[in-house]
Amino acid sequence: DQQVKQNSPSLSVQEGRISILNCDYTNSMFDYFLWYKKYPAEGPTFLISISSIKDKNEDGRFTVFLNKSAKHLSLHIVPSQPGDSAVYFCAASGSRLTFGEGTQLTVNP
Amino acid sequence: DAMVIQNPRYQVTQFGKPVTLSCSQTLNHNVMYWYQQKSSQAPKLLFHYYDKDFNNEADTPDNFQSRRPNTSFCFLDIRSPGLGDAAMYLCATSRGTSGMTDTQYFGPGTRLTVL
To answer: Which CATH superfamily is domain B4-110 in?
Structure first.
């Protein structure tokens, strides 16, 4: 039972454009959501988070949107840079952290 | 400035031969976690320690054990590795002040190969 799903295994975007990564969840008890970024041969690094009492959180080029009624969150990166190329995991927190399968983002120069 | 360190980065073992993976942290965090991640899958929590309190996930096989001798170190022992245990093993830490909603900080992982 995959409670957190990232339906796009990969996304390719041109440098300077917006990257939108999506994540859906099924458990309405999740109350905190995080995005992690992972480069090859490294562990995931925390990127940005959002509490369920908010619908938007912004940090520089990164914005996370939460739509609780749709059980959907998204990560917007604008403008996208080649160094953003990585695997992005969304994670949801209830009694424990549950990860999605990840989306490979490639930003082309 | 490594904060969560995992050794070794790559480990090769033989089928059935016990293996130990190591994790250390310089963050003085209360909670340490072990995750298993197979290719193109989400990281799967195996267990975690809150200080010395061990918390095993219900579906973690008995083949996997853990030790936390002090705040800084945590070990993952695989007693009899099978081919299906080949994976990336990730260690993570968190402060523990907000329970499981704390941000977790990950090490680089140990890639385990079972021959």
So the answer is: Immunoglobulins (2.60.40.10)
